[in-house]
Amino acid sequence: MNNGTDNALDLELDAAKLDEIERKYDPETAFRPTGPKLAIVISTALVAMSVYHFYASGFGLMRELTHRGIHISFVLGLTYLLFSWRKSDGVTLPKAAWFRFDGVAVMDIVFSLLAIACALYLPLLPPEMVADRVGNPSQLDVLMGTGLLLLTLEATRRSVGPTLPAIAILFILFAVFGPWAPGALKHGGTSWLGLINHLYMTNQGIYGIAIGVMAQYVFLFILFGVLATRIGLGQLFIDLAMVIAGRFSGGPAKVAIFSSAFMGTISGSSIANTVTTGALTIPAMKRVGYPAHFAAAVEATASTGGQITPPILGAAAFIMVEYLEIPLRDILAAALFPALLHYFGIFIMVHLEAKKLGLRGLKASELPKATLVLRQHWMSLIPLIILVYLILSGRTPDFAAVYGIIACVVVGFLNPVNRLTIPDLWNGLAAGAKNTIAVGAAAACVGIIVGVVTLTGVGFRLGYVVVQTASDIGGIASSIWPLSWFTVTQWALFFSLILIAISCILMGAGIPTTATYIILVAVAAPALAQLQVQPLVAHFFVFYYGVLADITPPVALAAYAAAGIAGSNPFQTGNTAFRLGIAKALVPFVFVYSPSLLLVADGFTWAAFTVTLIGAMIGISLIGTAFSGFLLAPLSKPQRWWTGLTAMFFIAPGLSTMAVGALLFAPILFLQWRAYRAAS
After folding, report:
1. What is the DSSP string of 623-667?
2. Which pTM does this prediction carry?
3. 633 is in which domain, residue-wise?
């Protein structure tokens, strides 16, 4: 990492490896190669998809069902062309055979056409005819609905993996065989006709809120992110991060934190962020002395922060807008300080690790010049500024995204650096649509699950089971001294949060974050509502723990992708990433017990917010100290355990608990000061 030329050369040489790593750990990007004829067809269809969504959201007036149907037809039709039956088939172009056309199985082309037909059949019927058939579908309706159901499950398996469709199948079986379900889950069941009527003929299933949000909002924001990166915004973020943090102790690790935080504003993909910024930061971290597994873990943990960073939050922000019926700017305001606490926690651990190892920062010759960076790339900030301004001014998300995209194109053609050409624009539109295919298939599959939940009421049933189980555990806890200081209700809330958090992490293993969030909200929201937790707080709690799955072994995909770049042990990297991301695991408990941290929650006061934020920052710092084993000097094992225990008193919001924590930590601070003075 001696100069800019070397950096560019390293990235160019590693491009093939990075692509291989992303394909390996992110099934959503495992596209198969095709021959030249189908490549033209697919590229044209992808560009048409982008142009359609841009027009429909910005200037067209489409009927809701029609818009969602066209979106699903694009998604499923392209899924069967872009993703093969087996993942291994997507590595090289298969040899020609009678059952293949241009490298793609003829059966996949047939499936693609069938998916388009099934997706468009209902939306293209006259609205009054659809209304008359709801509750009494014809045989053709049931046939087309069954076809769309099966094709959606298979498309999701190909693009996302087997876990999500397997869960959807379990929910379908639960709907049909409800009379044989155990205990509180038992219900009257439904016929296949009744199931298809609900999942296909109404807006409670495949054509429901999940696919609606993807079609109306998420597609445009993903396209915006691709175009913004293409005109130089991503490079500006990386260069600015190096200017801000590169010269300090352990500089490259701090660059990873800042660059990933910046990139998170335009991209919500943990693995994509890991590969994009990690290609630069991980080798640089190793070069200044960080162990390989630690370097990879820093990048993975920082990159997962992209999903909780405004203004995009992956896709969850837009789902919350629909579920909670509050403006997007309120969602973004609520997300701001929890996201900052996540990055603050990583920064503290990285800084302490650098001090413990005695690592240097980057030399002036290794850093870009701030004036040069801003002079070359300042124009690329204009689209992001326009996007954020329109959101904060109260405009709808799709309106803001449309004008953000227009700004990207205008800046791209005017900017002398990273100038956009017509082929670049074509490729950008295609890439933007391509990046939405897998998440679109997942959204359609989630619609099946949510449809079963609304049909059977299983969400409230499972919520009852969670609360009852937590209450039983709480009753036992409250009978034991000194746990009896807290009431059964208080313990019930605490153990409910624990059970829901574990469920989110398990569900997030191999399932996209947005899908995990939608599924768990259907179960967790009723449970937390019974315990008087605000809906906004409940949604954020579930969302945060769904994101945590990307760095939680045994299926920590972002950490494994980073390990592939660093050449480190994947499981060791995952464990280290979870340790670095511990703030993300603690912060949801903080805002459940003190909702003021979310700024727009009911009962917000500046006093409560200030106490909570300061306490959380001190507590997270102490947790980082305990894990790192270093503050002013190395800590002994008993000191580390004591410091970790003390941290809990600061994280628990309240001046009294913070005062107790300060008294408990005072001896450790005194011993550290003495050790520091002795060493210096």
Report:
1. HHHHHHTBSSSBPPHHHHHHHHHHHHHHHS-SHHHHHHHHHHHHH
2. 0.84
3. 605-680
